[in-house]
Amino acid sequence: MITRRSLLKASAATGLALAGSRLATPAIAQGAKIRLGYVSPQTGPLAGFAESDAYNIKAFLASEAGKNFEVIVKDSQSNPNRAAEVAKSLIVDDEINLMLVGSTPENTNPVATTCEAEGVPVISTMAPWQPWFIGQQGNPADPASWKPFNFAYHYFWGLEDIIAVYTGMWKQLSTNGKVGGLFPNDADGNAWGDPKNGLKPGLDAAGFSLADPGRYQNLSDDFTAQVNAFKAANAEIVTGVVIPPDFTTFWNQARQQGFSSEVWWSASHPFKSSLTGESSAELAADFTAKTGRPWTQPIGFVHSLFEVAANVMGRVSDPTNAEAIAAAIA
């Protein structure tokens, strides 16, 4: 698994620094292209994470570092089973050299698990490392049984970073320190809501108390139980890991029932792309200019996947050697 030290060598646009100022050109057969598989939730409730995919892929392929690559995109439809299915198709039918994936553990985990089983290197992001790593273990509740991976690599922040940022912000406000937690019954929600490895221990240590009414199913149409639990706990802060449709439903129902509560990447981050040379602000502005839409936080992390892919494949002599690619990532 990628360490904090090795991670600093991987990427630039999201705040990670590449080792070296130039990307090497992969050693490939004349006319052949390196095949990257990319699984993303193009449709379904997680589609917001994929909004910048087409823009980022086009920019990557147009860059000097991307000229020897082909990117094959598959839609997971925001469904873990579908994500595993299309990952297998990319491996078997499209014979990719390297898999890329992001956009929550519901998308990253089944793809990473499939790649690990098939012996194909995969790089993932946009999922806290705890639900990514722990969620793929045979027995998530037994740390002694957890095992490392040979082909699956991941970079992103963890819940310890979330706790530090959240409590730092909350302490700047005048609240009673009581927090309501919205955690769905999926890999993300189970990790965030875990009483031992999730938010609770860190919040307790920082002087906050967490009211956790339990797991709910994604795409729920009734959050009355959660609203009542937060009202009973006198929660003035609400946090969690909620897909966009569910947050809209919860928020509307909370307001109707008389309850109201008192950033990963941004265009202000001081970094430049190793693919295009653009700053974060320039990347965001270019996205808006070319799509007519406001920039979103996933832009930087999707962009960084292709930075890492270009860097890794530029350091292997044989792009068909899975073990060599995995070693280059590590």
Characterization of the model:
This protein is of the alpha/beta class and 330 residues long. The chain has two domains: 4-157 and 266-329, 3-Layer(aba) Sandwich (Rossmann fold), CATH 3.40.50.2300; 174-256, Response regulator (Rossmann fold). The chain has helices at 4-7, 53-62, 80-92, 105-118, 129-135, 159-170, 187-192, 199-205, 224-232, 244-256, 280-291, 298-313, 322-329; strands at residues 34-40, 69-75, 98-101, 122-124, 152-154, 178-182, 209-211, 237-240. Strand 1, helix 2 (53-62) and strand 2 (69-75) form a beta-alpha-beta unit. The longest helix is centred in the C-terminal third of the chain and has 16 residues, at 298-313.
Strand-helix topology:
Elements: H1 4-7, E1 34-40, H2 53-62, E2 69-75, H3 80-92, E3 98-101, H4 105-118, E4 122-124, H5 129-135, E5 152-154, H6 159-170, E6 178-182, H7 187-192, H8 199-205, E7 209-211, H9 224-232, E8 237-240, H10 244-256, H11 280-291, H12 298-313, H13 322-329
Parallel strand pairs: 1-2, 1-3, 3-4, 4-5, 6-7, 6-8
Short description:
The chain has 330 residues and is α/β, with parallel strands linked by helices. The chain is 40% helix and 11% strand. It is built from 13 helices and 8 strands.
Question: Descriptors for this entry?
Answer:
11% strand; alpha/beta; Rossmann fold; three-stranded parallel β-sheet; five-stranded parallel β-sheet; 330 residues; 2 domains; globular
